[in-house]
Amino acid sequence: MVDAVVFDLDGVIVDSEPVWEEVRRAYVAAHGGTWQPDTQRRLMGMSTGEWARYLSGELGVDRSPEQVAAEVVEEMTRRYAERVPLIDGADEVVRRLAERWPLGLASSSPTRLIAAALAATGLTGAFGATLSTEETARGKPAPDVYLAVAERLGVDPARCVAVEDSSNGVRSAAAARMTVVAVPHGTYPLDPDAERLAAVVLDAIGDLTPRTIDADLGDQDAVDPETAG
Length: 229
Fold this sequence. Notes:
Blueprint: E1 4-7, H1 17-30, H2 39-43, H3 48-57, H4 65-82, H5 90-98, E2 103-107, H6 111-121, E3 129-132, H7 144-153, E4 160-164, H8 167-175, E5 179-182, H9 192-197, E6 200-201, H10 210-217, H11 225-228
Parallel strand pairs: 1-2, 1-4, 2-3, 4-5, 5-6
Helix pairs in contact: 1-4, 3-4, 4-6
């Protein structure tokens, strides 16, 4: 039995991961840092404070974490003002599922970018609870944001389906005992351990229907992250 569906934002509803990578990569280069081969993969799922500290500390950017966060988010806000890169069909999927279940949003984006993205896509009213990892103690892969969204919706996390694209996002939702639908981005495939945590892996968000949840996930238990690996 599924009581609610909780979506990630970046990579699931908006194709923003490439934009984040472009903005942060350029920022690191402009401020004396060194982008590493695994940087983007490590950044996916981090809260604003976590990735700002990472850029300032481990990548050697000559700005404080507070400056890093403010300046990168300002550039992302400017990009969103020009265009929010909605993934084809994602808004229709959200609206279709909202007719059947309460929806939540558990995102690593800053609160102001979540608001901008939902407003631009007309989806603000579809979600009963939205939360940024800015407001939790830990970002993904910790389960904090998913647990908090379930609490705000008034549902048991184990009776929720989470929709995620990234390895850290899948790990986060699985750690919260949610059943995970993974829709990996073609540029950022799932790590093998994360793929094993997903109850189902879809090629595109448009493949997610109420029937998918009813038929394939309604009677499934969440995958135990302690035993999946």
